[in-house]
Amino acid sequence: MTESALPTTAETERRPRTRFWHDLAFWGLLPSRLLMGFALILPIFIIAAVSVATRGAYGGFTWDFNLAGYTQILFNEGWTGELEFTPQYLLIIIRTFLLAGATTLICLAFAVPVAYFISRQPPGRKAILVYLVTLPFWVSMILRVYAWMIILGKDGTLPNLLEILGFQPGMSFMFNDGATLTAMVYTAMPLMVLPVFASIEKLDGTLIEASHDLYGNRWVTLRRVILPLTAPGITAGAILVFVPALGAVLEPTLMGGGKQMMMGSLIQLQFGGGRNWPFGAAIAMTLMALVMIFLIATALRAARREAMS
Amino acid sequence: MNKAIEVKSVSKSFGAYQALKSVSFDIGNNEFFTMLGPSGCGKTTLLRMLAGFESPDTGSLLLNGKEVVSIPPHKRRVNTVFQSYALFPHMTLEQNVAYGLENLGWEKARIRNRVGEMLERVHMSAMAARKPAQLSGGQRQRIALARALAPEPEVLLLDEPLSALDLKLRQAMRDELRTLQRDTGITFVFVTHDQEEALDMSDRIAVLGGGDVQQIGTPTEIYEEPVNRFVADFVGETNFLDVEVLETLGGQATVRTPFGLDITVPATGSAAKGRATLSVRPEKINLGNQAQGIANGITFEGHVTSKNYMGGYTHYTLDVAGTQLRASRRNASREGDTIPVGATVPVGFVAGSARVLAA
């Protein structure tokens, strides 16, 4: 008998142990798997199925295969059944991406200096400031959006303040894209500040000193040292802000007045007043596909950067 | 002496802690100047002030005759080699070295030439396209040097740059640093807590302690003529004997040693009558036949209580009438280490090699 045929003591001891950990991992993760399966994956399949179902005459749907939900996004069916291109919904999709993109960029512009400032504070004050950034999460989002309506709306805080300063009385800043954007930036801001702060916090301060030492002014240091080294945090923040912003419902409905729709409010409308479940499901699937494309592109870029360094 | 740097009555406090207490000294052009001291002595604070990362509470700093306290780091013609090297991890070695030159607005071709020249100089040309993470400690050190020297600064600041290297490499880098300084003619301000590094490389050394300059001088002056107990203790090893000054005359003092002998040795100006400290370095103390017949010598007898054989030399601990003395003896031949523990031997040193310091 050769030596290698005999399991070593290390192996005989390890096998039951790994088996134990393997079992523990399986049973321990089972609740999460069930939750993910029933609460996330199954609903997606249901929505996917509904998106290719047929609209019922009085709301609801029947299980007959039909791509009308998808064609409706770009085309309008005329009297005689011919398809006519209508940009109506395409414009909503474009608006949605523009607003979500603007939200992300504005959040980024504010979050980088804020995160940098917090990271340069002494430990005690740092903890307090990070806590203050998360403070809005402690109040329901709908209340926070209503608070913005009170600030911007007719007879609100801002118009009153401007009136005192001598501007024209009775102004309102509500029910337009600016109001929607304001609320979206406000609700998303902590989601940008926190990951950016985490990556700036990890940044070695002597690298910033080295940049200044080598004749780099603040702008050069930000562009060539701080931003490249905090890119992972900025990417994470951008995803956390951009993706939920694509599905925003509350802000466009309450702040934008519901006239200027975003994809989120459009989907809600189709499942509600519009009584067109297949169309709503088709838009939802389209939104998800677009988000997936965005996420995959981001992941590929990150992987390429990783491979290069 | 042309002054590269003038430090004038600089003080600095961090909260209640006084890091620097009104420090003043000059650093000459083309000098290899070392600030030596234990951690917390204020040497790094001073270096950071020269770089522009800290500003003094009071006093002024002059660089080639120009006040620089109000000038931000990126406008000072001063570069730093950081203790942690602080190489930009996302840039190649080439890009790291080019960084300062790009910020100075050099032309592309000139930058390329200079980067190539600097990489050549630190023997890193073959690795130009690598990232810092792929380098060993010594290689990172070289790139940090190349990066800081590339813009031809008026002064190069080095913050304990050798402390992260292993012993062999540290010794090799000392020689390289010294050669680089001589070749470039740039003023080097070197900060370290390692007295051997300071003695080996420097033209002049400032010994800092407790936020104050304790002594400034050439390595020999610092080692052989320490002005106080702090300097004698921090630089090298020494024996301290509590003595009583009987008489002082023209830089000499006659003191009574604890073992009863009255001797006349050099003294610092501040030594007055009364209690004082006598410092004698272990290698200045001769034993056995070497101790006999020393011209102008002081000889007595001692009892060997222990010894440590170190190869090149042997450390002896002696008991002289109840006082402990350490002596080290070079093992000049195979038979060098022949004095056994327990032996009573003649002990002696040249009067000029001891020193009386203020208590």
Structure notes:
- The complex is a heterodimer of chains A (309) and B (359).
- With 309 residues, chain A is mainly alpha-helical.
- Chain A has helices spanning 9-51, 68-74, 88-119, 123-134, 141-152, 157-164, 177-202, 205-213, 218-246, 250-254, 263-271, 277-308, and strands at 54-55, 61-62, 75-77, 83-85.
- A two-stranded antiparallel sheet of chain A has the order 1-2.
- The relative contact order of chain A is 0.12.
- Chain B contains eight helices and 20 strands.
- Chain B has helices at 43-51, 93-103, 108-121, 137-149, 167-184, 195-201, 219-224, 229-234, and strands spanning 3-14, 17-28, 32-36, 58-63, 66-67, 78-81, 155-159, 187-192, 204-209, 212-217, 239-249, 252-256, 262-266, 274-280, 286-287, 297-309, 313-320, 323-330, 344-350, 355-358.
- Chain B has a six-stranded mixed beta sheet with strand order 6-7-8-3-9-10, sandwiched between helices.
- The longest helix of chain B has 18 residues, at 167-184.
- The mean pLDDT of chain B is 90.
- The A-B interface holds A 204, 206-207, 209-217, 220, 224-225, 228-229, 309 and B 51-53, 72-75, 78-80, 82, 84, 86-90, 99-100, 103-104, 131, 133, 147-148, 151.
